[in-house]
Amino acid sequence: MDNEPSSMQKYFAEMLGTFMLVWIGPGAGIVAGIVGVNGLSDVLAIAMAFGIAVALAIHIVGKISGCHINPAVTIALASRGRFPWKDVFPYILFQGFGAILAALLLVACIGTEASTVHGLGATTINSGAGVTIPMGMLGEFIGTFFLMLTIMGVAVDDRAPAGWAGWMIGMAVVGIIITLGPLTGSSINPIRTLGPYIGNLIFGGPNPWDQFVLVYSLAPILGAVTAVFVYDFIAGTSPSKQLDS
Fold first, then answer.
1. Domain around 231
2. Considering Cα of 158, then 151, then 134, then 91, what sign does the dihedral take?
3. pLDDT (tens digit, 9 = 90+) per residue, 116-166?
4. Model-level pTM?
5. Residues 117, 123, 128, CA angle at the centre, nearest 5°?
6. Which of 42, 138, 144, 186 pairs with 171 at a CA distance of 20 to 30 A?
7. CATH of the domain at 219
8. How many domains does the chain have?
9. Does the residue 26 lie in any domain?
């Protein structure tokens, strides 16, 4: 772009990118339920939908806002001075707008059964498989740690080959969902979970807020922040300059 994007352009880019993520990713989960996809094919289909959504969003809005589309990423980058703290709240706010809008429009496209029957693709721990909240927290911590480590290696580190960030981060998301999805739904993003929860709160689907706070918010944020510090240590990198807070 010829000119530096304005703050509002960046905020709306985050809203658009998060809208794409939540409409395509959880939307694929709803469709899988409607058409009756089960087992590993279900997990693979949803994982690929999320990976494609992330890759597309990065290539579309990455040059405008950085395409965080994830509060854990935003907070993690700010924790190491790679993103200004003054923009953290607006980024998260507009990410939330995008996620909630996507959830509501999924209901508009599919009907209220998208929430009441299919839960709007919301993430919940698989208690039937014996997954507890502490186990879910550990899984989401590790999954988000791997996601943020990938972001650091292929997008933040200026030694990374140009042009590969979108698809490498997308493929990381695919891999993480294949492993973590059957356990927690593999949120690795608080806003990805919040959008469907708000939709379910309105239309009658599941929205276990204790899981949202501990498993899908606290654990991913801690995982992402840890990854930033670990990557800087093992790669010998540091912010080129401290951004104004």
1. 7-235
2. positive
3. 999 999 999 999 999 999 999 999 999 999 999 999 999 999 999 999 999
4. 0.94
5. 80
6. 138
7. 1.20.1080.10
8. 1
9. yes
